[in-house]
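User: I'm putting together notes for a lab meeting next week and I want to include a structural view of one of the chains we've been expressing. I don't have a solved structure, so I'd like a prediction I can at least talk through. The sequence is below, exactly as it appears in our construct file.
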Amino acid sequence: MKNIDEGGRNLLDNSMVLYGSGLKDGNGHIRKDLPILLAGRGGGSLKPGRHIACGKGTPIANLHLSLLHRMGIESDRFNTSTGTLADLV
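Assistant: Thanks for the context. Below is the predicted structure for the 89-residue chain, given as structure tokens.
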């Protein structure tokens, strides 16, 4: 990905790769405090290399809505979102 040129940036600089699961514990079906990995720089809209802990009760849909905005898709909400995550930039 580092060697693929995309208009002066490499592919990883222009990508947003989200990796995670909808369950923290499959046995207990726990859907809170999900470990999520987000890689890439999203065309310069993301600051990588950090750990961000969201407030208790923050829906994962807030992350999804934030990523949609960074892709240029303007939407007021996504699924159960209550807003966006300002800490991504």
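A couple of points you could mention at the meeting. The radius of gyration is 14 Å. Residues 11-88 form one domain.

User: Perfect, that's what I needed.
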